[in-house]
């Protein structure tokens, strides 16, 4: 019997499947740099904010720079000062002083306290200071029964810190740049643009005329001779002579010649920590960056004062002094005057010509060992002066005003009372001539009248 078996059919071999591929669209040739990167950068918000911040920063810097070049209104500057400084100015007065015949007079600020019928004390401040620093000392002295006048030397405090000078022509590129800068300071950045808007043309002829002969303001640069003249005119115009002169700090180097040459105006001299150099270092006002930091940051300026001048100056008083130095050419004027201080004069030789002048020296006892040695040298050079120590620093008027006032008033009031010099006002020449003619004609009329009367009487007899 046949067995029929079914054999399994062989499975068909599976051919490997090919991956399906989509038909690609013909693409345009890639551009240089790639489109994908550009799209990413255009959609990046950080790039926008970076350029936006950079643009705003540049505009801000340009605005600040142009604002600093524009002239600052004196009234606006005054209103930014602390109330104590404004109050001090309102209680003072200004006097016009002529230092040179052909120059504009200088406005000198003075501050007074006390009765005008008592002894006159005139205080001359030291380097980097002003009459504002001596207001407490002046009040304490006035309470002792004396009259006090504190003076702001030119270049300091509220006195003029710049003078008008005439310049002819402009030399070279640097001179032209300085001229443009001075014009911007005087008239502002947009002066020429305003002229173009008003007149429709560039003010070229006016600029050329101003360049050929122009007047600019320069920081005060006065030496001992000029400062002595200023002090003499202040004393004369205010009718203070004779005065008890108080010289503090570097004021000795500025006013020593005045005391020698105008001794008839001086009743006595008191030196308060006076030397041929000032306590406040000039170099911090000269070195770039350093001067900006010192005058720009109140804390830094106070530290300099504490290290070099006085350890007990109040924050408000220190900041007021900084503001007076910072604005309106104050820094440059103080540096100019400080460099002109007579630091080479011989103190002993100076005192030889003033043996009859009553003198007193007030000196800090605890500032430093070196400063005490300087005090001994001054005492030896001025044997006729009484030497008295005090507990303050080199700026004693700031931290020991009452103590200093006691010592000054005791010295001044111990001297014989001053005799005021009253000068008769001079009569103008043309008026004096009329008076002389009237006097002569009256005399002649009286002579003839008497002669005629005698003749008649003789006839009657």
Folded structure, characterized:
- This protein has 461 residues and is α/β, with parallel strands linked by helices.
- It is built from 19 helices and 10 strands.
- The strands form 2 sheets. An 8-stranded mixed β-sheet has the order 1-2-4-3-7-8-9-10, with helices on both faces.
- Helix 5 crosses helix 18 (401-413).
- The longest helix is centred in the C-terminal third of the chain and has 32 residues, at 429-460.
- The model is unreliable at 20-24, 30-39, 63-71 and 445-461 (pLDDT under 50).
Secondary structure topology:
Blueprint: H1 35-42, H2 45-69, H3 74-79, H4 83-90, E1 92-97, E2 106-113, E3 120-124, H5 135-143, E4 147-151, E5 162-168, H6 172-187, H7 191-199, H8 204-212, E6 213-219, H9 224-238, E7 243-248, H10 251-261, E8 266-272, H11 290-296, H12 298-308, H13 315-326, H14 330-340, H15 347-352, E9 359-364, H16 369-381, E10 386-390, H17 396-399, H18 401-413, H19 429-460
Parallel strand pairs: 3-4, 3-7, 7-8, 8-9, 9-10
Antiparallel strand pairs: 1-2, 2-4, 5-6
Helix pairs in contact: 5-18, 9-10, 11-12, 12-13
Which strand order does the major sheet show? Answer: 1-2-4-3-7-8-9-10
Could you give the count of β-strands? 10
The fourth-level CATH homologous superfamily of the largest domain is Alpha/Beta hydrolase fold, catalytic domain
Strand portion, in percent? 5-15%
Major sheet characteristics:
8 strands, mixed
Helical fraction equals 40-55%
